[in-house]
Task: structure prediction
Amino acid sequence: MSADAPNAPVAYTLANTFIQLAGYLRTQPLAMTVSIALGLIAALLGLAWQLGVVWLIVTAWEPTPDMAGMGWAVAGIAGLVVAGRLAFLGSTALSHKIAVDVQRDLRLALAAHLAQVPMAVSERYGASALRRLVLDDVESLEDGVAHLVPEASANFTAPLIVLVVLFALDWRMALAAALPILLGFAAMRMMTGNSADITRAYYERSAEMAARATEYAAGLPTLRLFDGDGRSLLRFRAVSERYLAVIGDWVRRVLLASAVLQVCVGSGLLLVLPLGLWLTARGDLAVPHLVIFLVFAPSLGGLITRLPNFVFRFAQQGEVLSRIDALLAEPPLSRALSSERPSDRTVRFEGLGFRRGERMVLDQIDLVLEPGTVTALVGASGAGKTTLANLLMRFHDPHQGRITIGGVDLRAMAPETLYSLVGTVPQHSWLFSGTVAENLRLAAPQSGASALLEALAEARAESFVARLPGGLEARLDRGGAALSGGERQRLCVARALLHDAPILVLDEATAAADPINEREIQRALGSLARGRTVLVIAHRLASIIDADRIVVLDQGRIIERGNHRTLLAKRGRYAHFWALQNPTMPDGDFP
Ligand SMILES: Nc1ncnc2c1ncn2[C@@H]1O[C@H](COP(=O)(O)OP(=O)(O)OP(=O)(O)O)[C@@H](O)[C@H]1O
Result:
């Protein structure tokens, strides 16, 4: 849901965002009601002490002022001021507490939602945008929840009450007091245009800059080698300049608008004072009423000076909320759960098709992975191997056909069931910031230290983990950046061993390893694969010559299948790949 229709009136923007923000607060209705009520009480106490000031002025004007009464009034005013401040502090303290809870719940909701939507969604957003959304955007809601909702309730209610009371006292004077506000509104609207447009442009440019900065930092080693003339720096500069242009435009408009506003606010008394004196001289306005107008008319001016700031902050919140809502509105993978249990561990791809845009990247795939067998996927880059493996892990749902395990469609299977059946050692071994043990227990939370060490030994990772300071309790930061690619991969093999899923997806699991590491990993994978149903993607054909079945993909279709010997004998695409990778091996000389 968009926070703001294009060119929507300011009041619509404010009300819409207010309602959206309030929607996020519905989990804490009592706390929020108390916070808003305290804000209102603070505003009413503010009006009350100003009325006290009116009474003091009128009393002091009398020929024989009531000195004792004035003394009490001063004490009362002081009390009201203090009580007003306390009520306001109570309101914001409570709203800050609510903001922290709302932010925590929202981050958890976003993380949980991201785990349920197709991977295509996170691919579309990109890591930088998702990080901004979950961290920065949710963080910036603090302003909306902790400040804007209670402040807006108080700051707008009090002037509205004042306006109603002033109109009840004397409509001509009230109109004179309100006229600068109406002029100010109109001028501000003309100067700033649609503040939602400005904040959207601001966000887009700053997101572009963040993405470029991340890309620049990540690509520095490559850029140093290839970018001697600093072209990429120039590109980054162009992005920064676009960002500065948006800020410059905004500052110019705001400066002009606020100058106009100051004039309007300053002119408030210019109308009220002469009109009031004239009406009083004619006997049309009582002196106490004149004093009320003189005291309260400037507070209406105060409202309008705060308004641009409120409008901008509300528009900013509206933008943030629309981004968060858009992500939460991404439909999750379907969960048409079936009570049927998989009858066995046979995996079937039946008439499978998957599109990227208009292009079929997998088409008419029929394939059976028999329990306890190893099936290797082979094919040129872009043939669809990773996509097929990802579909088995249900990162996406197929557009045609289906995948079943033991006769049950993946779409009807509870995610817990699916992920207890299917494990993986991914292409890019992923470790999170935490200890080695915590990383391993992600797969099997209940495992004791001895089970972890056993898995590490089987994954040929025991000796390098023992060398880390703290061993199992050694901390891994930045995705395990301090480890080599092969070491990270062996930890992932250990994690997969602990996961103990009967079906395993291996995506180029030895790609990151040196020859010694590779031998170690092959051994580790050998133990991992034993007795399991394995789907392996391997570019190096030497590592899959013992596979029970090799499937050759080309542009999303299966073009050959068989074992190493039968495929070589066929002298088709697989034999061609083999010859390319093993040029020294004579034709027909099979290992
Ligand atoms: N996120 C994406 N968005 C759009 N197209 C994609 C995306 N990921 C993959 N593709 C396209 O889908 C097709 C299949 O890609 P896939 O990664 O499955 O191939 P692959 O055989 O695993 O290639 P490689 O061996 O290079 O990893 C390719 O044409 C690729 O360009």
